[in-house]
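Running co-folding for zinc ion.
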Amino acid sequence: MAATSDYLERITRAQVHMQELGIDLMLVTPSADLRYLIGYNAIPLERITALAISPHKAPFLVVPRLEISTASASPFGDLGWQVIGWSENDNPYDIIRNTSGFSQGRIAVDNHMWAERVLKIQKNFPNAHIELAAPIIGAIRIIKTPTELDFLREAAAAIDRVHAQVPDLLRIGRTEEEVGRDISELILEEGHAHVDFVIVASGPNGASPHHELSSRVINAGDPVVVDIGGTMPSGYCSDCTRTYSMGDPGAEFIQRYKVLQRAQELSTDAVHNGAISHSIDAAGRNELAKNDLAQYFIHRTGHGIGLETHEEPYIGENNETIIENSMVFSIEPGFYIEGVHGARIEDIVICTPDGPEALNHQTRDLVIIEI
Ligand code: ZN
Ligand code: ZN
């Protein structure tokens, strides 16, 4: 959890952005945005919970009456602002209007707000123009604070400890599902609060970047792509891919893997303050192209990570985002050859004044399991 001063700082910065952009009211419902702004990890329920922020006034939190004690026990309770409970006979939107003093203008809503809520806001605030809060909250979340960087380092170290044990789980004759179950247990044992995803893609299944665990039996000579991640008690996420091989995967795969490894290094090396997102993507993609593998690299190079596994900034071919110090994202090129095999190497990387800092430290070499 961040410190009270961090939350106060985030709210103040949000208010400054609102003033600059001319937003009159911002409403944030349970989501990573809410957790980021006030530390309240609320579950989205049919009854609305919303943080209301005006550019020049103290924020307040509207919650169903039965949630008052939970909300007050969250870090928001230490910020000294009002928690207003609403009961079954109240219209929570009236409470928001009366307390905020909003009459007309622009209302920003968090990007993941349920459509049902957005429509209710529209109905209850007929004079409002409703838009996304991304330009306000995203601009703050994209640059990580030193505390957040430490949380991400901690998450990366935890998933590294899981990858270190994957060779013990990969045995010929086991299914992807069996291996996946063991990995899920390890993700929790190594300190995550929950498992977000486990991809174990063996042999031709490696050609599907988001392969689901299947009953396929792992065979000799199979490359196995293992992409795993979870959320730590801090709320911050891990995400790391390594590719393993059950004995010798064949000369062609080894040659392609070497190209991929170079591509991953080149994209990582391209990370620096002021780099444009697409130049980081191009550094690796060009290496794959030189070796006739670019047509098999069918996704972007990476995504930001923080309280969500996928968030800004995205690292892709047409992305113009200027990378700055303390942005954190994955570098994860791959190749996917339908019906044959695939591979991916993924690290989480911080852009620092000294260049890239890769957070994952397990070897990026192809890990050959003795069979
Ligand atoms: Zn991943
Ligand atoms: Zn990823």
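Result summary
Residues 227, 229, 239, 241, 346 surround zinc ion (ligand 1) (CB under 6 Å).
Residues 146-369 form a domain with the Creatine Amidinohydrolase fold (CATH 3.90.230.10).
Job closed.
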